[in-house]
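Render this sequence as a predicted structure.
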Amino acid sequence: MNPLKLFLFFVMVLFMSLPAFAQKDEDGAVDTIFAESYKIDDMNWAVNISLFNDEELLAISLPLRMSAGKTKIYADSTVFKGGRVDHFRVKNSRSDTVAQCVTIGLINDIGVSVPPVSPGRGRIATVFVSSTDGTPIQYLEIDTTTTPPGNILQMVNTKVEEIIPVFTYRSLMGDTKAKNEEAESGQ
């Protein structure tokens, strides 16, 4: 095999495995945050944020970057009602229209005894996203990011240890971006 091709193969394998090395969970299974987007209408989408955890959690920091191509979007509201963190004392969602980001911060207890998130699986929030420039939203991509002043994807367990969960995203609308790009290119 060509040495250059072999080198490129190893580099590709390394980059594909980097997300696995970023995960940090000393106890049990690796915790996971799931984001699933779906279309409400041409100008509005929603993103259900769910969590799988195998230990009790006291806090969650979840900064998300959103992209809809050239369409400018805004996370106009976040609903925690009915979710696994509904009982938390601090449930904050801060949207940044310019950076196309939303930062969700959750803390269970500020001086009052509030139970942590129990181990399990389920929705923690729903983020509603709207077009701000009157252009229909054709597709939506969500990923984690870092938002000021240093918010990263992380959780804290009852031992006050940091947990870096896995993050996964899927659109319940299928791969609309690929279909739109294919239609635009005439294929």
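Summary. Residues 28-172 form a domain with the Immunoglobulin-like fold (CATH 2.60.40.680). The first helix runs from residue 3 to 22.
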